[in-house]
Amino acid sequence: MVRLITHNLLACHAKGCTSNNFPLQFKDVQVELREAEFNPDFLRGFIPRLEWGALVDAARQLGDTSLPAEPPEMLDVEFLQKLHHVLLEVHVEEGAMICPNCNHVYPISNGIPNMLLAEHEIG
Amino acid sequence: MPAVQAVTVSTDPQVYEDEHVHSVYDEIAPHFSSTRYKPWPIIAQFLSSLPTGWVGLDSGTGNGKYLPLPQDRPGSVWTIGLDRSRNLLEIAQNAGDIRREVVWGNVLERPWRAGSFDYAISIATIHHLSTPARRKLATQRIIESISPYHGRALIYVWAVEQDELSKRNLPADSSPNNKATDRAPAKGQDVFVPWVLSPQATGKTRAKNAASQNAEETAERSKVFNRYYHMFAQGELRQLVGEAALELGLVVSSPNEMKDGNGDSLIHGLEIVQDGWERSNYYIEIRRWECIS
Ligand SMILES: [Zn+2]
């Protein structure tokens, strides 16, 4: 699956591509929504690890504009539920992710991102 | 069970591993998966000890059997599975009957932001790499993937020293002197471990993994797949991790031993928290740290 929890970690690793290689940009995506168990304690612990701007931007690319530009100081349940949905319930099943720096294309098929590089692309 | 057989890695390691590791796992994926379900105790303990909210990498996740852990607090951490075998990932994707996050990739590469994971596990994976340089690179990728401030990792590899329960016949100490390991004092052994895929076996797994099996396969006779393993000698894993860390510019020690400086230098280090042998495997647990000394 490429949910946004994973997308927030992925970066381009093609040879020589070491700056501006995150976040990858979605292209031609098919999205499926699936319910997942809500775990507010996990989310509270996880928030400081997020690249927040990248998450908000990626969610907008997938048509979800529910997140604020900055994480709120008060982590109330309403906010955590929105975050939960964006991070863990939106599945990109098909499409691709493109490196903003070198335009390398990482395809997504059946929910699995292909992050393998060809031999000549490995740094 | 057929005997384990000593081998010498001769061709290009990438080509060699494609033939003797990756294509084998792609072929045997459903059968292999049906035999892999019980987590080893030290791995379960490690995953249970993680703080809620941590995100981790399972480098070489296979069928994803560790993705649902910890059992006592499911969902308290998120483990993302990486593997080279697409067919195993299709299984890992639904490990524990919940959708998991899996990524098709190479343990020798790092398709992540550096230091973005809180923890990593690498279970029964590094021993499939066929040269010391590649085993070290995979170890470095794990170290680089976890946080430089608090990242923790657990690595498991197959040991030369096997327990009685493993039912495997090992070759008598006939290990050919592998050129590549000549410099190292702790020498492992390069072997083929056969995987027998019988018609009954494929039939059995067909019920569970109907989508990935077909009638033609079950009609075939037993097939033997030889998987390449580097069996680690005592001390070899610890040495591998130490060398990998030093090359990345890390001090290999406990941060407590670093308190005597002038307070003007920033030190990045890696502590070996524990290492040992469990059920025919060597394991090592590490922790990254930063301190001012
Ligand atoms: Zn790039």
From TrEMBL, chain A:
Top-level lineage group: Eukaryota
GO biological process, one term: rRNA (guanine-N7)-methylation
CDD domains noted in UniProt: Trm112-like
Molecular function per GO: protein heterodimerization activity
Family: Belongs to the TRM112 family.
Subunit structure: Interacts with TRM9.
Name assigned to this protein: Trm112p-domain-containing protein
UniProtKB/TrEMBL annotation, chain B:
Molecular function per GO: tRNA (5-carboxymethyluridine(34)-5-O)-methyltransferase activity; tRNA binding
Domain Methyltransferase residue range list: 57-138
Stored CDD domains: AdoMet_MTases
UniProt KW Transferase keyword: yes
Coiled coil stretches, renumbered: none
Keywords from the UniProt entry: Methyltransferase, Transferase
Record carries keyword Transferase: yes
Record-given protein name: S-adenosyl-L-methionine-dependent methyltransferase
